Amino acid sequence: MRITGTGHASMRIDTAAGSILCDPWVNPAYFASWFPFPDNSLLDWESLGQVDYLYVSHLHRDHFDAAHLTRFVSKKATVLLPEYPTSELEDELRELGFTSFIETKTNEVVELDGGLKVMIQALTSPTDGPIGDSSLWVEYDGVRLLNQNDARPSDLSTFAELGHVHAHMLQFSGAIWYPMVYELPQAAKTAFGKQKRDRQFDRTWRYIDDLKASHVFPIAGPPCFLDDELWQFNDVFGDEGNIFPDQSVFMREYAKVGGTNGVVLLPGSVAEVTADSCTTTHPTDVDEFFANKKAHLEEMRERKRPIIEAEKASWRHPEIDVLKEMKRVIEPLLDESLYLAKGVGGPVRFDLVGYDGESVESIVVDFPGKQVRPYGDEKVRYRFRTERALVEHLLFIDEVDWVNSLFLSCRFSAARIGQYNEFVYAFFKCLSEERLQYAEGWYDEHLKNADKEDIRLGDWVVQRRCPHLKADLTRFGIVEGNQLTCQLHGWRFDLSSGRCLTSVGHEIRAHRAE
């Protein structure tokens, strides 16, 4: 099995029975804030795109690059489609010209021509990507690969049961806006960032230990930030609170916990994997490349500057009445929302900065009141501050997922009262009838059917499944004193009261052991 690194979470898998291109991403994403690093735009995509199969794990724009798919990937390729609750991914790909699809069933092996076997595990919580994320397992001639990308299954036992895995690709770096955009003192922001960075690595070590693959490939991050306004987010300043460590940092940290089987793929690297070995060739010296990371970023910044400026010039739509359009889009969804609206539990404010950089229009999405209205000087649960032009553009293009656009862009600042509230982001990911109804149904099923099985962790008896996304706490639960931490996503609970310390709306059942 030959694996060609094509950047970020992307790779091309070649076997004698066919080739699979996974998640090709080249063009900037999220309001031109994210770019792949190392740069993959100079690869021979004309050749790389001539494949038998295409796998797009989910609709995040650093995995689903519509412009690149349209231009470079053969429309003769058969799409390996995850089993998602909505048809959005298939609809988007059909619109780009793809016509051949294999609709997989989650956790069921499919045998393709020539003895090539694949299995896709789809995750379908409203907080998994834009209504879904997935992982791809591949087997040919006794060699097995798991492309986990940035999916976070509760465990990897389903893949392990299919036989020893030889190549395990997984995320290790950040892919979020927290804590960088929050209006916090720098010391607090650094402390929270370090905590998140450590959790990211802890989760990665847990997955690696679960699967025990022959070789581990760090992928799916980090992005780089080439706009001058976002430059400080790159991990080149010695900031221990930066959540975007690169592959060279992964290799150092992995060595500290005894890892000796890590393999870095640069764009253009080729790994030949057999049941007994992995031989990798690179387009340049890996250590030297990362030693000169800042210089590479600076060169990329100058080369990509015209792209960023062109994107920025397209965002303004002064003809749009933002308040009127937000009411039109959001109020019908508020009327239909039970769980999400109750979960948010208060008003959320958007401060929109005008073209002059000073004037501000404040709009409130009032979840209890089920309306969108001008801000009335009341306390709000969350406050977001961003350029008016960005929201104009979201409304202009009828964007149904403000998380997979505005929030991931990091082109905003935020403040909140109290804990993190996942329902805020779940709602703004579901600005369509189809998505909202799915999310409401998912929460209805999962909140009504709380896990009934108990386990013992230290001096405590707790429910087996995490109230957040049902991770198995026998594998991911760590108890220290009266607190439990679920290491899958870093959520913490006070066991004495059952209260979630990370977010609202997720109590845990717990009591001291006899």
From TrEMBL:
InterPro entries: RibonucZ/Hydroxyglut_hydro, Rieske_2Fe-2S, Rieske_2Fe-2S_sf, SCP2_Rv3818. Residues 461-514 form the Rieske domain. SUPFAM superfamilies: ISP domain, Metallo-hydrolase/oxidoreductase. Keywords: 2Fe-2S, Iron, Iron-sulfur, Metal-binding. This is Rieske 2Fe-2S iron-sulfur protein. It comes from Phytohabitans aurantiacus.
